[in-house]
Structure formats: C-alpha cells, structure tokens
Write a structure and sequence with these properties.
The complex is a heterodimer.
Chain A: H1 3-28, H2 32-56, H3 65-80, H4 86-108, H5 113-133, H6 135-138, E1 144-145, E2 152-154, E3 157-159, H7 164-186, H8 189-199, H9 201-206, H10 211-237, E4 239-240, H11 247-260, H12 267-282, H13 290-303, H14 307-319
Antiparallel strand pairs in A: 1-4, 2-3
Chain B: H1 2-32, H2 39-57, H3 60-83, H4 90-111, E1 117-118, E2 126-129, E3 132-135, H5 136-158, H6 160-170, H7 172-177, H8 182-204, E4 209-210, H9 214-229, H10 234-252, H11 257-274
Antiparallel strand pairs in B: 1-4, 2-3
Helix pairs in contact in B: 1-5, 1-8, 1-9, 1-10, 2-3, 2-4, 2-8, 2-9, 3-8, 5-6, 5-8, 6-8, 9-10, 10-11
Classes of the chains: A mainly alpha, B mainly alpha.
Amino acid sequence: MTTTTIHRVGTLLLILFTLSAPWVLPIFVDSFWVDIYSEILIWSLLAASVNLLFGYVGLLSFGQALFFGLGMYGVAVGIAKFDLSFWPAFMFGVALATGMAVIAGALAVRLTWHYFAIITVVFSLIFYFTALSWKQITGGDDGLPFSVPPIVSIGDFELVITNPFTQYFFIVLMVGACYALMSRVINSPLGRAFVTVRENDTRAALIGLNVYLIRLSAFVLAGFIAGVAGALFAFFGRYASASYMFYHVSGEAVVWAIIGGVGTLFGPILGTGLLIVLREELSSVWDHYLLLVGVAVIVTVIFAPRGVGGVFVALVQKYAKPSSSDKEGSQ
Amino acid sequence: MDLVIALGLNGIVWGLIIALIALGLSIIFGLLDIINIAHGDFFMVGTVLAWAVLETTGNYWLAFFLVPIIGFGMGALIEYAVIQPIKNAAALSIVATFGLSIILQESVRATYGAAPNRIAAPIEETFLLFGIQYEYYRIFAALVAIFAICVFFAFLHKTKLGTWMRAVRFDPETATAMGIPARRIYMVTFAIGFAMAALGGVVAAPITTVDFQAGIDILPFCFMAVIIGGLGNLEGTVAAAVLLAFVEGIITSFADPTFARIGSLCLMSAVLMFRPHGIFAGATR
C-alpha cells in the first residue's frame, strides 16, 4: 500500500464511521455515545482552529475560546433577545466570531511567539470579564438558556434539532463542511503560503509573500471555524455561558490539538476524541483523572511533540511504499 | 473617603505580594524563555503548604521559612523533569506548563480537597486608620514582601550566583564558554521562581482564601505586571504590580471590580502592541 492509499482509506473509514454512528454505536456501546461523538466533533473544530494557527502558520493561540464564546453568544442572544429564527441566528453567531477575528487578528498577528500567545489570552480575558459583568445580555456565569426554533419548516413539515437524528446529522454536516473548507484551503496556494510562513517568515517575505496578510487570513479562518464550533455547541447544549470563554477552554483546545498532532488535518479529531472518551470513561471511576491528562500532555510534548497523528504519519511513511503523487505534510 | 484610603492601602499591600510572585515569573521568562502558565499554581501550592504547616505544627511563623524551601526543592525537581527536556521547543513550553498547571491543581484537589479554607492571621490585632479598623497583619505582609524583594535584588547584584544568573540571561553561550554552569543556573532560577511564588502564597494566605483554584485568578494579574513593567525588566515588574493593584483598589471603591480588571487588560494589550518592552523601557536602561 502506498501512503496516499492509506490516507484515503483512513479518511473513508472516518467518514463511514461518522455516517453510521447513530446506528452502530447503540449496538456496540450505548446510545448516549452518539451524543458524546457529536460533542467530540464540535470540540474538534475548536482544536482544529488551534491546529490551523499553530500547525500551519506557527502561531500558538491561547485565546480561541473567545471566538467559540462569541459564536455561542451570537446564537443564544440572537434567539433569546432578538427573536431570530434558526439560520439567521446561526449566521449571526458565526459573523460575530469572524468579525471579532478580523479586528483581533489585525492587532494580534503583528506579534509572534510568546507575545502572540499572551495577547490572544488577554483579548479573550477582556471579553470573558465583559460577558461576566454584562448580565442583562449574557446572563453572566449562570448562562443564557434558550429554546431552538426549527431548522426548516415548510407547511406541516418541520425539521427540529430536538430530534436526536436531525441534531446529529446537522452537526455532522456543518463539521464536515468546515473540514472540507480547511482541507481545500490547506491544499491551495494559500495553504502552501501558510507553511512557508511557519517555516521561515523572513524568507517568505523575501520571495514576495505578504506575511502579515497570510497570518491574518489564517487567523480569520481559525476564528470562523471556532465560531462555527461555538454556534453548534450553543444549539447542542441550548444555552450559552461566559465560562466557555475562559482561557482554560482555550488551553484545553491547545491540549487536544497537540496530543492529536498539529499540522495534520484530522489530528484534532483524534486528540479531542481520545481525551473526551478518556474523560467519559474515567471521570465516573476516578475523580482525579485530570492528573492523567496533565501527565499525558507533558509526556506528549517531551517524547512525541508531533502528537499521536504525527506518530501515525511517521509510521506510515516508514513502512508504506512512497507514492509518486505523495506530497509532504498533506494528509 | 475613608474607604478609598483603605482600599488604596489594600491595593498597595496586594501589589507588593503580586510583585513578589511576578518577579519569579519574570526571571523564569527572562532566563529560560518560558511562559509559565503554572506560575499561579506555584502561588496556590504555597498557600496550601502554609495551611499544612499550620495544621501540623500549629505555628504559622514556621511556614515563612519552611514553605519557600519546599518550593525551591519542588521547583528544582520540576525544572529537571519537565522544563529541561523541552528546552529546545520554546512554543511547546506553554503547553507543557499548562499540563503542569493541571497536575498541580488536581493533586491539590485530591489531597487538600476542593473546599476553600480561611486561615486566621497570626497577628489578629487591628489599629484605627482614618476611622477604619485596619489589620496589622496586612502591614506586616507588605513588609515581608518588601524585605523578600530587597533580598532578591541584593542576591542578584551582590552574590556570585546572582551575577551568573544575570550573565546567563545576557548571553548564555558566552556565559557557558566562560565556565558558568548554565544548566544548573536554569535549574536554580526556576527553583527561585517557584520559591518566591510559594513565599507569596504564605504571605497572602491569611488575607485571601486557600483554594486549589486560587492560582487561576492570580496568574493574569502577574502577567499584567510582567508585561506592563516590561518582559524581563525586574524593577519595572515591581513598579507595575504595585501601581496596577493600587489603581485597581481605588477604582474598586466606586465601580465594579470587573471594570478595573477589564481596564488593566486593555492597558496591557496596548502596551504589548506599542511598547513591547514595557512602559518603563528607556527609563532604566
């Protein structure tokens, strides 16, 4: 088998599993794992937005929760306060996150390394505290619950998200679209420019790439993805809360991305999946399972800085026949 | 008006404690080039150790000596086990210290418990200050913080080890070539950083609560002091910590404390954007 075949088969298996999960998971484990899997898919988008910035342009953001939170609040406030219907609320949330990404990014991507990490935390903290104190709009720490309007309603026919099947496939569709978009961008000339900037920004500038604009577009795309994740999570949980904007949520996303493997498209799903399954399995048995997460993070950083996905890619490249069309770094 | 004075004074006391903790953060950043997300938890470990010392011996004063020593040992151990192996991947150090932060918080929750505790101040007397009963302990806490900061600066400028630390920070390669054991200096620096945060914890424990999440609130404040004072500018860090806490204290007397926090964070982003070496850059060097 060549490396590309392995990657194609892997992707196909992932898609098949995702599409059949509502029928397969209740047979083998329990039907509540379908909900867990939708949660994994949503959170993996947040990890993917970290991965897009760190894995492809080399900027470590510790503030992606800001865009997640804005996507979430956009939906919740749109429905609860402005009486928007389903799609306008969805778009409002995503637009809010993307708009904020444009503004925050325009300032933040002027900085790199530690400074970039710090300023992204600071931005997310500013809005976290704002959301906490602006209680009449955001509900503060208590959160803002709402009831979701139907996705479409034509005459008597209504598609509502309270139906588990509808909810699952709506989430799969949206998450899938985001991954398709990311894959499209990563394999485009812009994606190549991302990697060039990551590897050496001075040389990238010397060959005529606009480093600032490239970093900004990655930041805006990451903000958009995180915003979609937040909006989906608002529909999933039917509420929004300021606590999802705290830097610990951003930190968790970074952990998922790092353990899954940065710089690979599906690494974030792997990392998010592993850690959320670990949480679900262990938290009821052992109250302090987070100790294990902390150790796993440190061990990964020391021994496998490219994460589980990176180890897999390395193994594939070692044992599979290289294919002629195999491109470095793309999966 | 009385309230303003008391809150302003509280701000200065708190600012001095923060300065002590933030100095540790600043030397770790300046020397090891590491953003230490776990630094707030070092402080938290200090408060919990102080509580443990009080519980076992019944004497709080012992904590002032014992806890920094334990902190120094823990710091050296962590540097050896976690920081040294990732020395070459600076960006990942943030992630590793985040993992460290999870471990510290969770082990404290597992042993000490999740419920916050209050410690009675070892000096319980109060005195009348502009019509308000003010605790002597807070004045004492400020004095301890000032003393520790002075000792630290004296150590940095007057001893051989301190000079080595400054040399390694200035140019690690030349320092190594001159025979300075740079690796050991990194370890000592990290250990001193931990010890200072832990001492800050001992000093602050009777003023605040002992809680496994205490570090989460303190960390952003320490970062603000370090950034606004200038990364690696130690005198600037102290000045910024005291100034910020004082201003926040004053603002708290007439507005929601969250607004004060948001204001400081906005100031911090402005400093990062336009004066990345801190607002005191040029004044000291």
